[in-house]
Amino acid sequence: MSAYVFSISATAAVFVLLALSLNIITGYAGQAMMGQAAFFGIGAYTAAILTETYHVNFWLALILGMLFTGLCGAVLGLISLRLQADFLAITTIGINFVMVALFNNMSITGASLGLNVTKPSFFGRQMGNQEFFFLTLIVIVIVCLLIVKMRRSWFGMALASINNDAAAARSFGIDVSRYQILAFIIGTAIAGLAGGIYAHRMGYIASSDFAFTVSIQILSMVVIGGIGTIRGPILGALLLSVLPEALRFVSDFVSDYRSLVYGGLLVLMVRFMPGGLFGSSSPIVRGSLWVFRKITGKGGAAA
Amino acid sequence: MFLQLVINSLAIGSLYALTAMGATLIYGILGILDIANAGAYLIGAYIGYYIYISTGQLVLAFLGAMLSVGLVGVVLHRTVYGPILAKPRMLSIIPLVAAVGLFTMSSDLIRLLCGAGTKAYNFRFPVDVVRVGSVTIQTTWLLIFALTAVLLVVLWVVLNKTKMGLAWRATAEDPDIARACGVNTNSAMALSYVLGYGFAAAAGIMTGILYNSITPALGEVPSYKMLAIIVLGGLGNPLGTVVAGLLIGFAEVMLSTYTVLPIPKDAVAFVVLIIVLLIKPSGLFGQRNKV
Amino acid sequence: MNELMRVEDLKMYFGGLKAIDGLDLVINEGETLGIIGPNGAGKTTLFNAICGVYKPTGGKVIFKGQEVQGQPAYVMARKGIARTFQISKPLADLTILDNVVAAAGVHEYTGMRSYFRKSHTPEVIAKAEAVLEETGLTEVRDKKASDVSLGYLRRLEIARVLVTDPELIMLDEPCAGLSNFAINEVTELILKLKERKKSIVLIEHNLPITMKVCDRIMVLSYGKKIAEGPPEVVKHDKQVIEAYLGEEDEA
Predict the structure, then answer these.
(1) What is the rounded distance in angstroms from the CA atom of residue A90 to the CA atom of residue B233?
(2) Which of B35, B91, B231, B265 to mutate to test the interface with A (most CBs of A within 10 A)?
(3) Does C160 touch chain A if contact means CB atoms closer than 8 Å?
(4) C212 vs chain A: nearest CA distance in angstroms?
């Protein structure tokens, strides 16, 4: 039972990390990224190839995979400078498909057979779901702290300005292109790190793990949770990865028809609650704040 | 040999053009990248299939599927896209997210209702192939040619020769001014959806006939290929879409015949797209910059 | 008076359209220069070409003795050339205070290094608040920019410019679309800046205000300068009356 819980938690944690990474690009920098799974995949394959083929140390492979993914993100960032939002969205979808096709055809990525990855050891003990869960959790905490720091810095101010009005941002000294590229680098690098962790936990990766539908899953988590906040992507990712498992005890419907549920939720959310379930204007958040104030007796109606 | 390949690529290309035409019409009016068109394509193929196997009438299958899927489009516009677009200060990717949501739902919905297995139209002409000199043409391809041509002519007539078409063009140019001039922009938008989803449904049936198999995953490849084609065609430009569709068909056939591709041929469209966008960021035929 | 900016033979072509066609212009320190001209004369294009939104087709922009033409907008802003927009461009999701704070960081946006520098330091907030006070925005300090009226947004544009401590202030129709009351407030604000010997370039359709505020007026028509001089002189120039003032009087 606890093994099962850790298995689900480890997967959920990877998705939390992915949702946070996408949120940097789409939520903070306002760039239309629809192919985050491609970068998840680049990180996964890079780290896996490094440890399997080149026998690089696991931790070093994670870092190198992250850096290489960030480099690919920089290239996409450069491309994005030339494109308007709609074109960029399609280009990123395209990149996702092309990357999956490459993973599925290149011999270095194991082509259609996929890639077996030896699970790493930590102080002589092979790492299992539990260890990977805690590893991912630590990374999530670090990433969250870094994001909080970002939002209080001039870097965060630059992203917020660009997201609101790029022309205005330029008029007070913001090099929009540079920040756009930086957001792509940071967002994709974190996704790459998530990929490296994922590959070594699963012990096997195949191109379908990084398909466009996975990008949609990540996007769903961000949008349903609340784009542009920290709690939104985290709670959205937890909800969407734990809910199907939890409901499995009731019925297999949700896990069997995952796309139907994700798609339906996406449509309902953007139609009725574009700020997300846990965004700042969400009734859930307002409601719980109100309850919190009532309980603590601070302010009341006037606050 | 080469001539044969050209004919093959024209057939595939015109099918692509037809598939992407729906999304082009919708983008032209609403500025939404409606990836859910691929869902309409899938659902159209299934509705057409059920009509065809129960009545044996292919014409009925086309009409029934196009009409019912067109209506679905209007309903979706009224209930989903319209209200989303009406909201002020909306993130640019929100309508696209809604479209992606609808598209993801469609394949699971079909799997739920019709089962995951493959279904076959088993439609056959009395003659399988036509030979002209050294060139062989499958009769189903001729059907695709003919139907694509007819539908494109119908589209051209509707857009250029009717009052409704005038309203459509006015709305595509500038919805606010069109509205101020008394154009019923709502009906122009509805027209986009009827035509757009109807065309997608027709393309779905044709694909079903051509490959004689439909599955719930039928919409996957068109979903992104269609996007690549409408972007190449300059987003919202019907003529550009036809040219881009033919171009992609041509590139796929030629590249897979004469070269050893390191990627599957379905990814060619995106490679072409990415290259074109890097050279000309507004697409091959993009004249105006919609923001 | 010392020369602050000199524009020499500036050209801005869009395909065959000559939006700015060989324009010369001098702005002295502490001077207020008005630019008037009929719609489509190229006034906003001139701003955009000077401020780096467009790359000029030809000519020179010399700012404090340094050639700066063709540099991107954000560089111009850092050099001390600050401009407002004819159509307000607020950062709609941010509060009015944060809008001004964002602009106060004009020299802080240095890429990755900016990650390690906090934005809302007490000094920055104090500076932003002072500008809010000066521009009469204190009452809407904590409101979202999307929730305030146009009059506030126009003053927000000016506030964002002021907080960057600019050497040259370029105002693009700061009174457009405002009520008479709001116009008076903005005019007062410009006069206050003038008293403090700020160098200002003003595009304004409202002639009485331009005449009242400016030391010198340049008249632009079809991308060319057709007259220049003190308000009193320009007012009586025949060409100007034909091209611009005539229609304006009838209106």
Answers:
(1) 13
(2) B91
(3) yes
(4) 28
Q: Which of A154, A160, A170 sits opposite C94 (nearest CB)?
A: A160
Say if A273 falls within a structural domain. Answer: no
Across the A:C interface, residue pairs with CB atoms under 8 Å apart total: 105
d(CA A198, CA A241): 15
Using alpha carbons, select from B185, B188, B286, B197 the residue that is nearest to residue B237.
B286
- Residue A290 pLDDT level (bands cut at 50, 70, 90): confident
Nearest residue of C to residue A162 by CA position? C91
> Residue C203 — φ and ψ, nearest 5°?
-100, 125
B chain contacts of residue A109, beta-carbon cutoff 8 Å: none
Which DSSP category does B138 fall into?
Answer: E
Bridge partners of C20, per DSSP, are C12
Residue A2, number of CB atoms within 10 A of its CB: 9
pLDDT at C97: 95
Nearest to C159 by CA among C133, C126, C125: C133
Question: What is the domain range of residue A33?
Answer: 2-209
Comparing B152 with A159, the larger pLDDT belongs to A159
Partner chains of C (3+ C-beta pairs under 8 Å): A
Give kind and range of the element (H or E) at residue B181: none
Hunting for tokens 């994005």 — which residue is that?
A80
Residue A196 lies in a domain: yes
Q: What percent of chain B has pLDDT over 90?
A: 20
| Neighbouring residues of B275: CB distance < 8 A, sequence distance ≥ 6 | none
SS3 C109: coil
CB A178 to CB C111 under 8 A? Answer: yes
Give B251 to chain A, closest Cα distance, Å: 16
Q: At what angle do helices B220-232 and B268-279 cross, to 10 degrees?
A: 20
Give the minimum alpha-carbon distance from B83 to chain A in angstroms, rounded to a whole number: 7
Provide the number of structural domains found in chain A. 1
Nearest chain C alpha carbon to A186? C112
Residue ranges per domain, chain C?
Answer: 1-80+168-180+201-251, 81-165
Q: Residue B160: beta bridge partners?
A: none
Q: Which token pair is C42?
A: 């190229």
User: How far, in Å, CA of B104 to CA of A34, rounded?
Assistant: 14
Tell me the average pLDDT across C87-93: 90
Let me know if residue A241 belongs to a domain: no
Q: Which of 175-214 (A) contact C at CB < 8 A?
A: 175-176, 178-179, 182
Query: Can you name the CATH fold of C1-80+168-180+201-251?
Result: Rossmann fold (3.40.50)
C81-165: CATH superfamily: P-loop containing nucleotide triphosphate hydrolases (3.40.50.300)
Q: Considering only CB atoms, which chain A residues are within 8 Å of B271?
A: 98
Q: Which residues pair with C10 in a beta bridge?
A: C23
Tokens encoding A102:
């490459």
How far does B143 lie from chain A, in Å, by closest CA?
31
Q: Tokens in use for C6?
A: 């000199």
Which ipTM did the prediction report? 0.89
Rg of the Cα atoms in chain B = 19
Side chain identity at residue A231, one-letter code: R
Structurally, what CATH architecture does the domain formed by B2-279 represent?
Orthogonal Bundle (1.10)
Burial of B227 (0-12, 13-18, 19+ CB in 10 A): buried
A209-227: pLDDT as tens digits: 999 889 988 998 999 898 8
What is the pTM for the complete model shown?
A: 0.86
* A299, part of any domain: no
| DSSP letters for C174-241 | TTTT--HHHHHHHHHHHHHHHHTT-EEEEE-S-HHHHHHH-SEEEEEETTEEEEEE-HHHHHT-HHHI
Distance (Å, rounded) from C-alpha B24 to C-alpha B28? Answer: 6
Q: Distance between CA atoms of C9 and C225, rounded to whole angstroms?
A: 11
Residue located via tokens 């779901």: A129
